[in-house]
Specification:
This protein is mostly helical and 243 residues long. It has helices at residues 2-13, 17-29, 39-51, 55-64, 69-82, 85-101, 114-127, 135-151, 162-174, 179-189, 223-239, and strands spanning 210-211, 219-220. The chain has a two-stranded antiparallel sheet with strand order 1-2.
Length: 243
């Protein structure tokens, strides 16, 4: 192992990114009798690899530096521009997660942003809805709901994100994220048993309620109410689930 370590050190000194990344891992984990654990040296090697364009090193720096949001965003954004394929999805999901969970924006406008979270996670789910076993679709769904809470009433016709949010949560469940099941159940229960147009409940009516066949979320006491809701804006909300 000592001989291999020396070979990697030599390669790293010559500016070989994979060698720098490997050394960073060795310093991070430590190898008894060979490499003493050192977070500082691990980060130094990762930064050198990142400066040479290694997107994996950029993502590692972003993921391990979450306490410093500005630095994390810097390296994740660089990875977003440099990376391709699955590595690009890693960078975009990480950026979305950073903006979704960051502290409130400071005086320079830097911090939590559901709009940016949606922007970056959107790259992932639109290229692969099943990415990360449905975790990306789940985060996209949550970002949609949080953005709606920030901007306007969620039930506003034509701007209602609930159908689109549940659509992505269902995608998440289909991709294997079992945590999405409970979320879907809670979201659907908010609309069950009442007419989405006039507000009449099933208990107040002697008719069997009709369910929207496309989004499968909203219910109506009559064809008249269903058509009224469609024209009032549900046609926009419902169709948005397939964008």
């Amino acid at each position: 192992m000592k001989k291999a370590f020396e070979h990697y050190k030599l390669s790293a000194e010559q500016g070989h990114p994979p060698a720098l990344c490997y050394l960073a891992r060795l310093y991070k984990e430590g190898v008894p009798g060979v490499v003493k654990r050192s977070s500082a040296k691990a980060n130094t090697h990762l930064k050198q690899a990142a400066d040479l364009g290694d997107s994996g090193a950029m993502i590692n720096l972003a993921a391990t530096g979450r306490d410093d949001t500005k630095t994390a965003v810097k390296y994740a954004t660089l990875a977003h521009h440099y990376a391709t394929g699955k590595t690009a999805n890693n960078a975009n999901l990480l950026l979305g997660d950073i903006f979704q969970k960051a502290k409130p924006q400071d005086e320079n406008g830097f911090g939590k942003s559901n709009n940016l979270a949606m922007h970056y996670i959107g790259f992932v789910v639109k290229s692969d809805p099943t990415a990360f076993n449905g975790v990306a679709a789940s985060q996209y769904s949550r970002a949609l709901m949080e953005q709606a809470e920030d901007l306007y009433p969620m039930h506003m016709s034509g701007l209602n994100v609930i159908p689109r949010s549940i659509y992505w949560m269902r995608k998440s469940l289909a991709a294997g994220n079992l945590d999405a099941k409970g979320v879907i159940s809670r979201m659907e229960s908010m609309e069950t048993g009442k007419c989405s147009a006039c507000g009449m409940t099933e208990e107040e009516s002697d008719k069997k309620f009709l369910r929207c066949g496309r989004c499968k979320i909203y219910w109506y006491c009559s064809k008249k109410c269903q058509l009224a809701s469609w024209e009032a804006g549900h046609k926009v909300d419902c169709k948005s689930t397939f964008c």
